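Quality-control log, excerpt.
Job 1 of 2 completed; input and output follow.
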Amino acid sequence: YDDLRDLLINDYKIRGRRSLDRAELSLKHLGSFFSGMKVVDITSSVIEDYILSRKKSGASNGTINRELSALNRIFTLARRQTPPKVMNPPFVTKLKESGPRQGFFEHDDYLRLLDALPEYLKPVLTIAYFTGMRKSEILNLQWCHTNLTEKKIALPAEMTKSGEGREIFLAGALYDCISAQWNIRKSQYPDCLRVCFEVLPGA
């Protein structure tokens, strides 16, 4: 593990990502558990032990997910090396995070508005409601930022108002929405880069 962790730091520096401090914090927590371990010994069950230890320390699911994403990225980078440093990376699970924030816009309001909107605007509302993403982030969201296999959206730093990249995990209605958009894209708009198609009613 200790030989691989620097791959993530170097990747952040090469790509100029502004969230290096956050990655280093994740690595600090990961290192307190995995430092000294051989990669072959880092199995899915060992990763689950890490999750339990972090939960016991009071870390939130969101915080743990950021750390698990960093761990998963380490394995991905290691597998891409020539020759590969890891051949069979373990499955890294993700935890369920809190649902959408409650406020003036309640769930019943969301459902009523969803029902009233034309089909081409429903994905925009669903993504906004379940993620809190800004309008510009949603309309500029591309398939290269979305991974249905890993069930996550990875927003690059240049797309966010804060200037920091962030990851959003897909589940439930949100995952179903993105998956449906992908199926529409494959059948009707194979060259479309954006997740939310700018399609006029009846087009």
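Job 2 of 2 completed; input and output follow.
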Amino acid sequence: MFGIKIKGIELGVSFSFFAVIALLFVCGGAQTENIFTALLCCALHEMGHLMFMFLFANKPQSIILYGGGIRIRPSVGKMLSKNQDIIILLAGCGVNFICALVWYMLYGADLFFGINMLLGVFNLLPFGYFDG
């Protein structure tokens, strides 16, 4: 894993992230702009989480890009209220739904709209790793 620490936050990229991207290119099933659109939607999702983490003075311990997406680990020892936790968890999906709505109103349903909707709904599933 490649990593760097900036202002106490570990930023890293796992080899599995590069492997998944390379696999998508090699298999030829995804065009370059589709891959970058999906990465942009994922980044917007995670920025929603980060925005509220910083708003509640809970900077992340680490942000890691890996084969399954982006993993944000909150700081250890900082206790948030249940409502603050819920807001942080819903912020990512909220950003995806807002982006999808605005894009739909401006340009209609296309890839950017679809990926944002998919990410928003998918992350609402009630499984431990997702935001739901």
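Post-run check on job 2. The helical segments are 15-27, 32-55, 82-107, 111-122.
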